[in-house]
Design a protein that fits this description.
The structure holds two protein chains of two kinds. Chain A is an all-alpha fold. Among the domains of chain A are: 36 residues, no CATH class; 82 residues. Chain A has seven helices and one strand, in the order E-H-H-H-H-H-H-H. In chain A, 8% of the residues are buried. By secondary structure, chain B is α+β, with helices and mostly antiparallel strands. Chain B has two domains: 163 residues, Chloramphenicol acetyltransferase-like domain (Chloramphenicol Acetyltransferase), CATH 3.30.559; 226 residues, Chloramphenicol Acetyltransferase (2-Layer Sandwich). In chain B, a hairpin with a 2-residue loop joins strand 6 and strand 7. In chain B, helix 3 crosses helix 4. The chains are: A mainly alpha, B alpha+beta. At the A-B interface, strand 1 of A face strand 8, helix 13 and strand 16 of B. Strand 1 of chain A pairs parallel with strand 16 of chain B, so a sheet runs across the interface.
């Protein structure tokens, strides 16, 4: 207890174990770390039981029609497998709504990826069932990959730069334009093997002014207030 | 643990008192109405002896020896005779949310860390006064088991004695008899916004200072300690409000101060018996100095701190509870309505809260073993810093708890005291 640390900025006395002032963040030069800290480091974790319990209940509820359909399919329609549709659909629903309940934190990238996997699997099952592998490879798979990557990019930008609502909307709208362009390219290639863009220009042409408007608006607080005033409900 | 004849005798149940009813309804996975009292002794805590002391103490307190049960219309407490509460090593984030099945169903959590015994209480059980009696009795019993002779005086109860019925009575129901109807209209108050801490983390910033020095400072302004500290707390929020714009709505700033009704009505209950008074200022009138804020708080307290006004407030609350329409609503409907009410109305009229449990008195023989008491409020649903105050001997402990990263309020508060020439020592659970 020879030298007690003080914060030079706030003037408060600090605990022997402190290495910075908690009020202003200034580092303490004199500190002896051997001392017992005023509070333990371990944290109490609140049990996640509840959301897991609800998730498992919903899973069971979702499993019931699947089992029923499986049995009916096996007994009455041996040889014709329509069971795929039910199973794949349930899997996608599960990934979208129940999977995030099992996560402790929000993890949007993982969530999107899991939805992509399940949705692709669902489409694959359908394409096997209707024996149309080439539309799966040329149309379905590329489109779902593109959607996934566009979502990744949006999540990444929003996560990193934390733009406001207006900029987030304009980023998402840009992604919509890109998606339309790619979808048209793929559809054209699949149908005629001859790429000529038409309707996606219409989409782009009508969305681009909106994006420009949103970007201009997002930098103009006065204009926003004016619009809120004139248009409030 | 064996179930003894003694346990079976305690087979009993209680209605929740008037103030207790809101907490189970407002309870969520992320928030519980919790508060903590702790005592720091002069030697390291022996957890085995503490466990034994707890088992003996809890039986003396029928209103603590319970678990939460739900009836068709209301929750109720049922004597938890078969099981025992377990003492645990302390954690970094006190007052974490509670679920009815935790800790063998008990609504208190007893922790130990180094030289400290800490108890987290669910607010339905009791208020600061009752909780302090429990903590003092547990500590005395712990010291007795360690071989010291501690008398049962100064709020320490004798654990071998049978509990008196008035110790667990519902004093609200007994004393609320005002004919006055109506309620003071309270405007929406300013809330300080910050960046929320993650998960169940809670920020604790403790200021340890001298009781005598603060008393002198308060006296030089003709104020009590509670008045002075709540004025300073409100002033700290006022400084932040100034940055956000004084005339920007909401313009009211109010500090909620729990009042111990035992000082105004005859009661020795260990259950809830307190009310909130919300003095404050309105910045629509312009700028305020610290002294002006202090005066506003003092006028309000002088006008309202008497048995007549308090009885009117209490009766109003009891009248809602006694309303036939509310009583016949099934519990789950009550829960939904009360939790919405708590979220929307509960924090509406207040900016912050200051709770002062005052000076802790303990038997002379116990004093040589105790170095200080601490008091913490659980996190608020509005995340902003709330202040809890307790004093023992010459040590005054000021505890800020919040759920936000920012420390502006705490920093302003403590540096203000430093500028008045009062030394403050800071401790924290933050990294």
């Amino acid at each position: 207890m020879s030298k007690l640390p003080y914060c030079v900025k706030c003037g408060v006395e600090l605990d022997n174990s402190a290495n910075k002032c908690v009020l202003c963040g200034t580092e303490v030069v004199l500190s002896c770390q051997e001392d017992i800290t005023p509070y333990p480091k371990e944290k109490a974790e609140v049990s996640q039981l509840n959301s897991k319990f609800i998730a498992s209940m919903l899973t069971i509820m979702l499993a019931i029609p699947n089992v029923a359909c499986f049995v009916i399919n096996m007994i009455y329609f041996a040889g014709v497998y329509w069971m795929y549709y039910v199973f794949g659909g349930s899997l996608v629903v599960w990934m979208i709504f129940i999977f995030p309940m099992l996560l402790k934190k929000k993890r949007p990238i993982l969530h999107v990826f899991m939805i992509f996997l399940s949705a692709t699997l669902y489409i694959l099952l359908i394409s096997i069932a209707v024996s149309g592998m080439d539309w799966f490879l040329i149309l379905a798979l590329p489109i779902s990959i593109v959607v996934m990557f566009l979502l990744f990019i949006i999540i990444f930008i929003v996560d990193r730069t934390k733009p406001g609502k207006l900029k987030t909307t304009s980023v998402s709208l840009t992604a919509v334009i890109l998606l339309c362009l790619i979808v048209e390219v793929l559809v054209d290639y699949y149908v005629t093997a001859n790429i000529s863009l038409s309707w996606s220009y219409v989409v782009a042409g009508s969305i681009v002014p909106v994006i420009i408007f949103l970007i201009l608006l997002s930098g103009n607080k006065k204009m926003q207030d004016e619009l809120i005033k004139k248009l409030h409900i | 643990m064996l179930r003894t004849v003694d346990d079976k005798k305690q087979n009993n149940w209680f209605k929740l008192d008037n103030a207790a009813k809101i907490y189970p309804a407002a309870n969520t996975k992320r928030w519980s109405g919790m508060f903590r009292l702790s005592v720091t002794l002069k030697e390291k805590i022996d957890s085995f002896i503490l466990q034994e002391a707890l088992a003996q103490t809890i039986k003396r307190f029928p209103s603590f020896n319970i678990r939460m049960r739900s009836g068709l219309f209301w929750y109720y407490f049922e004597t938890n005779a078969v099981k025992r509460p377990i003492v645990k090593p302390d954690v970094n984030n006190p007052c974490a949310p509670i679920s009815w099945k935790d800790n063998n169903g008990f609504l208190i959590r007893v922790f130990y860390y180094d030289k400290r015994i800490a108890i987290d209480y669910f607010h339905s059980l009791t208020d600061g006064t009752g909780a302090m009696i429990f903590l003092k009795t547990l500590t005395a019993q712990y010291l007795r088991l360690k071989g010291f002779d501690i008398p049962s005086t100064d709020g320490v109860l004798d654990v071998d004695e049978l509990p008196q019925t008035d110790e667990f009575e519902d004093s609200f129901g007994k004393h609320a008899n005002s004919k006055f109807k109506g309620r003071i209209k309270e405007n929406k108050a300013y809330h300080f916004k910050g960046n929320k801490l993650e998960g169940d983390d809670i920020s604790i910033i403790t200021g340890i200072t001298s009781l005598e020095a603060i008393k002198k400072l308060a006296k030089s302004n003709n104020a009590t300690i509670t008045e002075y500290l709540s004025a300073l707390l409100l002033y700290s929020f006022y400084i932040q409000k100034q940055k956000d714009g004084l005339y920007r709505k909401p313009t009211r700033l109010a500090v909620s101060i729990p009042v111990n009704l035992r000082n105004y009505f005859k009661s020795t209950t260990n259950r809830n018996f307190s009310l909130f008074l919300n003095p404050g200022i309105d910045t629509i009138h312009g700028e305020y100095t610290f002294i002006e804020i202090l005066n506003q708080i003092q006028y309000f307290m002088k006008a309202n701190l008497n048995d007549k006004v308090l009885n009117a407030m209490m009766s109003q609350n009891v009248r809602i509870e006694k309303n036939m329409l509310i009583r016949v609503a099934p519990l789950f409907i009550k829960n939904i309505l009360m939790s919405i009410a708590h979220k929307s109305i509960g924090y509406r009229p207040i900016t912050t809260l200051l709770s002062n449990v005052g000076m802790v008195k303990i038997p002379q023989k116990m004093k040589e073993h105790v170095s200080r008491f601490e008091f913490f409020l659980g996190s608020a649903k509005i995340y902003t810093p709330f202040l809890a105050v307790v004093s023992y001997n010459d040590t005054l402990v000021l505890n800020f708890t919040s759920k936000i990263r920012e420390t502006e309020i705490e920093r302003f508060f403590f540096t203000y005291l430093i500028k008045q020439g009062i030394p403050v020592k800071i401790e924290s659970n933050r990294e």
